[in-house]
User: What shape does this take?
Amino acid sequence: MPYTAITYDIKGGHEDEVAEVFANFRRPSGNVVPGADGGQAGRILATAVFIRDSMLVRFIEYEGDLDAVITFMATQPGVAEVERKLAPYLNKPRDTGTVEGFTKTFNASRLRCITQFAVPRNPEPSASAADQ
Assistant: This one.
């Protein structure tokens, strides 16, 4: 599955306040990402958030069309709430109030992926295990 990660430039010394913002995150009701045609364009499989000093990184594992994933995230009330609550702790404002602004900000804050490794989530049973 592909991964992406975005950064936030946080004011130092506010790690606990920022952690509290994410501790109360309202997840979407589902992980299916709709496409422009109304069909399924992807899924968000996992997210994780890391912080150290002034660097916050949001890691996203997804499948499907990343542009559709970004648009889906831009329309989620929980994501908008996090962006709003993070605003006082940011060194530079983020324009995330519209889908267009969110998309532009997301893409500008994306980290370049150097490599991705994963083991199969549902590996085929080995021959020896199947024979038992």
Summary: The first helix runs from residue 15 to 23. The chain has one domain: 3-115. Helices lie at 15-23, 66-74, 77-86, 99-109, 127-131.
